[in-house]
Amino acid sequence: MTQAPAETDTDRPRDEDEAADGTEGGSPRRRRRVWRRIAFGALVLLLATGGTAYWLYRDLDSNIKGVDLDRAIGDDRPQKLPTSGQNLLVLGSDSRAGANAALDAGRVSGARSDTALVIHIPEGRSRAVAVSIPRDTLVTRPECATSDGRKLPPAKRVMFNSVYSLAGPACTVKTVEKMSGIRMDHYVEIDFAGFKELVDAIGGVTVTLDKPIDGHKGGLRLGAGTHRLDGTQSLKFVRTRYGYGDGSDLGRITLQQKFLTALLSEIKKQDLLGSPAKTYEIADSLTQALTTDSDLASLSRLAEFGRSLNGIDPATMETIMLPVKYDVRDPNRVVAARPQADELWQALRKDRPVPESARKSPAHGATAS
């Protein structure tokens, strides 16, 4: 029987890591080829990751609408604080446009500033004061440009929330600056849909009531005690007027201040910045409904400003209603009460604590905490 020839080195399949010359580790050419593949793979991964991050950033960034206050208002503004303190005008818009229409049954055209807060952050940014301006307050509207560039003449005894519907954000800022003597460093506006989505994105907000809400006109019904509210319930909560307190806008402000503190506490408790996925979900919901001044109208600037406020404890934030009294000509409207309102604005202008006398309002429903 013929014997099979012995297997030689040239007949054996060469190991992938063995060089053509028989040495381990491969030739320099093969090693370069392997490293090129590794480098190319890493580059593809880096580009894919970076591209996704860039897309996410651009997606969120493009959501935010900006208003150039300096251009719209001009030089007719109070001076900025000589300290690092900041003042923000925060508005909740009651527009029924787009997704907002399904959240409110009221057949009202246009939009008004349903909620208005002047938030003063003193130097050091370790505390804050939030001043609510009742929507039914009669104010003097200065001459200003509307959102479409038309000139709006000055007018006396107009409802505060009508300024937004007639002339838009810049004129509302100018009106607040005229009545307070305080320059608003920033402007932030959120609409119905954005508010609801924000609350749902963080899993709800917990509030505690010392007396029930009886929404007998199709509104919210809640007993006294602690409740976890979803987005739709939260929207009804901050808009409740009838069925709580004296049924006036002043009673509603009490609920809005209570909710604001609870919302900020929830955001801080959840440490949202430590959860990227959660943060993106919230940021996407929030930025779609945000209008800010042009200085804040980018995701990076908004995030930077938010981080600068991390030292503020929501539990210690002061919530005050602008001191008002019922108008003598129309008891369904209120006007700023003096000297209390003047004392309040002066304290904020000078970055000083609000005196006790400026926390009291002749009209019912005014609270401070």
Structural descriptors:
10 helices; alpha+beta; 369 residues; globular; 7-stranded mixed β-sheet
Q: Compute the number of helices.
A: 10
Strand content: 15-25%
Biggest sheet record: 7 strands, mixed
Please estimate the helix content.
25-40%
Radius of gyration: 30 Å
Low-confidence stretches: 12-24, 43-55, 96-110
How far is the N terminus from the C terminus?
107 Å
> Averaged pLDDT, please?
78
In which order are the strands of the major sheet placed? 1-14-9-2-3-4-15
The geometry reads as globular
Number of strands: 17
H/E order of the elements?
HEHEEEEEEEHHEHEEEEHHHEHEEEH
Structural class: alpha+beta
Describe this structure in words.
This protein is an alpha+beta fold and 369 residues long. It contains ten helices and 17 strands. The termini are far apart. Helix 3 (160-167) packs antiparallel against helix 4 (169-180). The strands form six sheets. Strands 1-14-9-2-3-4-15 form a seven-stranded mixed sheet, sandwiched between helices. A two-stranded antiparallel sheet has the order 5-8. The model is unreliable at 12-24, 43-55 and 96-110 (pLDDT under 50).
At a glance:
Helix content is 36%, strand content 19%. By secondary structure, the chain is α+β, with helices and mostly antiparallel strands.
Topology:
Elements: H1 28-61, E1 65-67, H2 69-73, E2 86-93, E3 113-121, E4 129-132, E5 138-141, E6 144-145, E7 151-152, E8 155-159, H3 160-167, H4 169-180, E9 186-191, H5 192-201, E10 205-209, E11 213-214, E12 221-222, E13 225-229, H6 231-239, H7 249-270, H8 276-288, E14 290-293, H9 299-308, E15 318-321, E16 324-326, E17 334-336, H10 340-349
Parallel strand pairs: 1-14, 2-9, 4-15
Antiparallel strand pairs: 2-3, 3-4, 5-8, 6-7, 9-14, 10-13, 11-12, 16-17
